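Researcher: Good morning. I'm working through a list of sequences from a screen, and I'd like to move beyond sequence-only analysis. For each chain I'm collecting a predicted structure so we can compare shapes side by side. This is the next one on the list. No need for commentary yet; just the structure.
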Amino acid sequence: MAYRQDISHCFGDGLLARAEYDRLLAQTQPRLAQLAAARRDGNLPLLQLPDARDDLAACEQLAAHLMRDTSALVFLGTGGSSLGAQALAQSVDLYRPIAPAAQGKPDFHFLDNLDPWAMDSVLSDLDLRSTRFLIVSKSGGTAETLMQALTAIGRIEAAGGGKYIKHHFGVITEPGDRPLRRLAAQYDIPVVDHPPRVGGRYAVLTAVGMVPAICLGLDPVAIRTGAAALLDPLDPEAGAVEPAAIPAAEGAALSVAAARTLAQPMQVFMPYGDRLERFAMWHRQLWAESLGKQGKGTTPVTALGPVDQHSQLQLYLGGPRDKLYTIFTQSLAGAGPRAVTDDPDLAWLSGRTIGDLADAEQRATIDTLIANGRPLRTIAIDRPDAPTIGALMMHFMLETILAADLLGVDPFDQPAVEEGKQRARAYLAELGG
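Model: Good morning. Structure tokens for this chain:
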């Protein structure tokens, strides 16, 4: 197993009721059987992706196009079209605000938020002659992404590169008559298909994640192999699926038990170390958009250790008991630069590495939350390599689907989001032009 999940600290006096959890875990069995059949029959394409290989040649081709003579690669997309790729990039230290470009690698920029000053700053600072853009929109009509794409094309044209537009861009979108696809056809920009039956927030194992992964130097087969290992127990030929053998089923039952036990329930996802910060952000969208319906769901909260020990831990320990905690730990001891000092008052730090201190702090946070009676799940990771990140992503996609079933909501739609989109388009029309 690429990681180790421990839920034992969630039950007891003042915590979650074990009987409620056991009942919910047993209720995941029919849905697990349905998912096993769907994996066999192809009724849920998400479950076929870990074993797929026939789409990777097109992903490799688009990645090679984008990386040819490239000084910077800018990813244009929002939500599920960007967060998974960001999580993959961060797992190999190629995307952090404080990290310089790796030697021999282009700069990687993820413009997932529509901010006019950030867009202008990035486009003004880059050498547009050797800058490439990957535009991702499942629907092909995402307003934010289309605005970014049109702006980037305009800058390339203004810089005298109008006849070379197709060399600067790549597109991932669904087949059919879509605005983004028509834009790509206008400039002869290469396009890779987004699978129509895989929702955007579940799309990290499609080209949406695999093209960036290849550009970043990650092995897409290793990512998918890690994800496939999570689905191995969903083998309809092996008989009934045992929920207790599925870590994601345990997580779903735990989360719904918390939703029914805690007042105004929230879920805190707190990885230790920068390399999983964007993974937590990816999960936040997946969980919130999939489960927040019909007055149900739990509010996902992201935190980052050790830094949020200073900004959040006081609330977690002294505030309301309305949170289920998931702490992601890494093997940190011995990692990083070593401190050297002759000051006797700092002898406890001398000779220690940054990883030694971070490891001690993650252990201390876990023990302190447990000692203060907070329900806490730990997920221990040796290192977030390609198979591990693939396994974790499949775990939480599966956990989300199972939690939705227990809550009685559809994990694949987002009806409330559409109202805001329609209002934004109406307000934009009021500007005239």
